[in-house]
Recover the amino acids of this structure.
């Protein structure tokens, strides 16, 4: 048995991949190395990474600045517990996050994944109201079509009917849902939709601790875009009815939509904000939950005057050092111009697909390009077609999409467009899944 065959056999028998059965039924591609925007497979093929490793590797792979940040920090320490201790990388990163996020976000709680950042946000909101003498305010409110992670409390605010999270109905907290926001980033705000929110919130305000939404882009729940005006409306309604507002910027933060944070499209700020994914440029797992001074001080005045949460790898110095370097690298460049260039390239590359048989919709915002099909994607056929065209994509549900690294050149952007078209044709040819 060859080395490659042995590795893949062990992978199939032992390694449980995301959203897959055990043992595995589909043989994954074996990656040997990555550099720039390319993945080098063990068999010698190279693929343009159209996914930025699930939207995280905004600077691509083996970036010399981030590599040096890792080496430099390794010379000091790779990890130290955060209970009773602190260190410069965490302090510097918290300072930078407070500087670049809007007021009134002033305090930073570090964790090690986006789902946990949402768990922490929910815990902050619930504990805020316990500390305020309102323990009855213990539900979260959101719109349908959202996605906030795969751990238990985040699953409770994901779309209750779409996806596999419906498996856990009865085990999760029952949250308050309203209809998904009207689609279209450039569409005018629907006053009737906000009125529906106002009426629902008026009915549930006494039991709702916080509203939680993904601003502007609903990511893994369907890759839909909505007007930033709905964020303005939610901010006003939250203030009017005395509930907190949480923005989940894990997928949208650090420039992906053309603003540093998607909330900036509306020029509003939440009480609590979650960031992750691109925080470390895709190098290490790290996330953060930021909150206002009002939230922090209310919790600290309560019967349990601490936020009872403490991940083992909280504020990991190695991840913090790389995250700080990643943010500084982003801000030192014309990242706005690069994201705008990618948006232009994706619009050009995907525009013709709207008329392709089997395609329902084509949409682009910032460094996000989405092709929605009439039927669920044939994952095997679509992936194989993209790989044949030298591009790595990971379709899901009825979507073939790309969120490439910001360093992706124009030629590679064009290749991604060609690969998406080929993937759509291949899926349509099999009748979807």
């Amino acid at each position: 048995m060859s080395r490659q065959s042995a590795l893949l056999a062990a992978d199939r028998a032992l390694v449980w991949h995301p959203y897959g059965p055990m043992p595995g039924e589909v043989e994954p591609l074996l990656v040997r190395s990555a550099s720039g925007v390319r993945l080098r497979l063990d068999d010698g093929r190279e693929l343009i990474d159209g996914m930025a490793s699930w939207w995280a590797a905004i600077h691509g792979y083996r970036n010399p600045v981030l590599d040096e940040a890792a080496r430099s920090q390794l010379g000091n320490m790779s990890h130290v517990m955060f209970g009773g201790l602190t260190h410069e990388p965490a302090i510097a990163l918290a300072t930078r996050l407070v500087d670049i996020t809007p007021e009134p976000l002033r305090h930073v709680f570090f964790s090690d994944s986006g789902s946990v950042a949402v768990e922490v946000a929910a815990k902050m909101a619930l504990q805020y109201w316990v500390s305020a003498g309102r323990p009855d305010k213990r539900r979260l409110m959101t719109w349908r079509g959202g996605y906030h992670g795969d751990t238990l409390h985040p699953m409770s605010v994901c779309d209750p009917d779409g996806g596999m999270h419906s498996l856990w109905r009865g085990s999760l907290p029952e949250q308050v849902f309203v209809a998904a926001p009207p689609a279209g980033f450039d569409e005018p705000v629907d006053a009737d939709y906000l009125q529906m929110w106002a009426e629902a919130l008026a009915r549930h305000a006494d039991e709702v601790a916080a509203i939680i939404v993904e601003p502007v882009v609903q990511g893994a729940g369907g890759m839909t875009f909505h007007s930033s005006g709905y964020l303005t409306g939610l901010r006003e309604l939250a203030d009017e009815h005395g509930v907190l507002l949480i923005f989940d910027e894990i997928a949208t933060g650090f420039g992906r939509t053309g603003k540093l944070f998607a909330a900036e499209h509306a020029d509003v700020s939440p009480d609590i904000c979650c960031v992750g994914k691109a925080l470390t440029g895709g190098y290490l797992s790290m996330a953060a939950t930021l909150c206002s001074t009002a939230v922090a001080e209310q919790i600290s005045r309560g019967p349990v005057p601490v936020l009872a949460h403490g991940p083992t790898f909280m504020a990991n110095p190695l991840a913090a050092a790389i995250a700080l370097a990643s943010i500084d690298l982003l801000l030192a460049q014309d990242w706005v111009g690069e994201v705008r260039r990618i948006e232009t390239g994706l619009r050009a590359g995907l525009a013709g697909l709207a008329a392709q048989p089997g395609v329902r919709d084509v949409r682009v915002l910032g460094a996000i390009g989405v092709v929605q099909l009439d039927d669920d994607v044939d994952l095997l056929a679509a992936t194989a077609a993209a790989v044949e065209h030298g591009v790595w994509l990971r379709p899901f549900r009825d979507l073939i999409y790309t969120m490439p690294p910001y360093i992706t050149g124009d030629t590679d952007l064009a290749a991604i467009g060609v690969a998406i078209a080929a993937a759509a044709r291949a899926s349509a040819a099999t009748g979807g899944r």
User: Anything to note?
Assistant: The first strand starts at residue 31 and ends at 35. Residues 171 and 295 are 28 Å apart (CA to CA).
